[in-house]
Amino acid sequence: MKKIKVEKAVGMTLCHDITAMREGFKGAAFKRGHVINEEDIPMLLDIGKRFVYVWEENAGMIHEEDAAKRMAAMIRLNDARCSKPTEGKVVLSSDIPGLFRVNTKLLQKINGIEDVTITTLPDHYPVKKGTKVASMRIIPLLTKEENILEAEKLCRKDALMRILPYRLRKVGVIITGSEIYTGRIEDRFEPVVRNKILQYPADILGVTICDDDIKMICSAAKAFLKQGADLLIFAGGMSVDPDDVTPEAIASLGADIISYGVPAQPGNMTLVAYYQGATILGVPGAAIQLPTTVFDVLLPQAFTEEKITREDLIRLGSGGLCQRCRRCHFPNCTFGRY
Hints:
Elements: E1 2-5, E2 18-22, E3 25-30, H1 40-46, E4 51-54, E5 61-63, H2 64-75, E6 80-82, E7 90-94, E8 98-102, H3 104-111, E9 116-120, E10 125-127, E11 132-138, E12 142-144, H4 145-157, E13 161-165, E14 169-176, H5 178-181, H6 189-197, E15 202-210, H7 214-226, E16 231-235, H8 246-253, E17 256-260, E18 271-275, E19 278-283, H9 286-289, H10 294-302, H11 310-315
Parallel strand pairs: 14-15, 14-16, 16-19
Antiparallel strand pairs: 1-4, 2-3, 5-12, 6-7, 7-11, 8-10, 8-13, 9-11, 17-18, 18-19
């Protein structure tokens, strides 16, 4: 491309979008490929463009729009749609509700390549149909093609991002606590848990209230498993107090406990386990008091085919301290996110 005064660019072809901003509008006033005519000159000057870039062949170079389209193609993201390039940028949007996953280490490598930028939603972020999940562009109008080739090579080895679709889960809810079981206080867990679960494709098999008794809790769990439950929610009894035996009951069941305790708050005492193909989440009392806890962070993944790993939980430590600061892992935080 070459830089030229707008007065001398009549008859020449723009090789980039030209952005204009005015009240109620921000977008491309002139699109790439537009042939400049005399009538365009006053408008270009009005938006502060005394010079424009027109196309000329550059061996080994690639234009911003072509680069963005190639970056979108290299990602190979299923269940997503790609926008047309606008101002050198391509946006990917989810075609389904699900859980967005991004390989953060690979993303850092790609963004370390000269001129290349890809920005995404955070890893483990729940999305709806139509949610924008990623945007990509190069910084200048042209870059060396070798930069795009390097990014493409990295993406052939590993998937950069995925959208995990939600699956129907048969859910059994077990609420523990002698004070609830004996009727001394009214249960407050059920409406909270039920409301959160029904945001996903769930068939709630039932809700059982148990005393702080290991055998009773295990019996309730086995009853749900016989009904085909593949997600068990244990609510209450998750602290280290002597009477709180829910973690011990889950262990007695024979479950593979991934972690009892998560480096994120509120909901530090959350438990994650697996047993006979069923996902188990132990939910502490914070879920009653606060609108968003670790339970909300983990629940979306429990409705996908991908297991929650200890590494997933460890990563929550960075950004896991919710201070109502708009920078946390909590996707439904009433204070927003970023």
